[in-house]
Amino acid sequence: MTEEAPKQSWWRRLSSGLKRTSSSLGTAVADLVTKRKLDRAMLEDIEDVLLRADLGTEVAARIAEAVGHGRYDKSISADEVKAVVATEVEKVLAPVAKPLVIDETQKPFVILVVGVNGSGKTTTIGKLAAKFSVEGRKVMLAAGDTFRAAAIEQLKVWGERTKSPVVAGAQGSDSASLAFNALSAARDEKRDVLLIDTAGRLQNKAELMNELEKVVRVIRKVDDTAPHAVLLVLDATVGQNALSQVDAFHRTAGVTGLAMTKLDGTARGGILVALSEKYKLPVHFIGVGEGIDDLAPFTARDFAKAIAGIEV
User: Fold this and answer.
1) Residue 157: is its pLDDT beyond 60?
2) Which residues pair with 196 in a beta bridge?
3) How far apart are the first and last CA of the chain?
4) CATH among 3.40.50.2300, 3.40.50.300, 3.40.50.1100, 3.30.1490.20 for 109-298
5) Best CA proximity match to 258, nearest among 239, 289, 231, 296
6) CA distances for 305 relative to 41, 169, 249, 300, angstroms
7) 113 vs 7, which has greater pLDDT?
8) CA–CA separation, 308 vs 50, rounded Å?
9) Are 210 and 125 in contact (CB under 8 A)?
10) How confident is the model at residue 25, as a pLDDT?
11) For position 1, what pLDDT does the model report?
């Protein structure tokens, strides 16, 4: 029984977090299919609804086609459409739903966390530090977003909360040398995991990307296999903009996996599906709130059902 309780509470958080997305999808679809037989015009309308939820053109077209399969000139219920949406979305997400595996042979296992300002990067690092600490791992944090005093302070607070040491410098100090010092210290102290925060200013993309490249280069002077994971944190509320962010960060830092935050604040949660269809990058975590437990490992079936508005 104890096994089931956390799962249920996460499902509740997930489905309520995705409520804006699922109701914009579910309600619009229900309105379409009521009192009408299925025809080409209805399928185009269903496709439009899916596109507005940011599921992407390929996925929207596939779902509309699956809805229409064998059902022309017949009545179709909203629940039937939701079931098709969930099935098709799960097909896209199942191959990318992968946990972030810590390689025990790497001491420390270095996770470089990247993303634009406001994406929830620093909070995600704090939540991951809490998760790893609970698992019994010795964690160290590096406040590599040296441009924002608030980010440095925020990371120190998370360090205290999770009893993890924080390597930080003054605001404006060089983030690459800070990363170098943090990795050297984490090695000396035999830490299991080092989480490195990075700057996320997008005012000048070239400058930001050069900075990131430099951080990666310098880390490799200490350990040529590092970083062992590059986690890109994306804010779901930016919708289509997330695609260009994946593009830019993947080219520069070699992103190995994604965490998507703020799914509770948007009707466009479908963007995760569009990203998965296009980039096929592993999705490790999703966040549906500010709480420490509101970041959880990503599971394709739960997400697909929640986005389709299917009650479990």
Assistant:
1) yes
2) 112, 142
3) 17
4) 3.40.50.300
5) 231
6) 26, 44, 30, 9
7) 113
8) 10
9) no
10) 85
11) 39
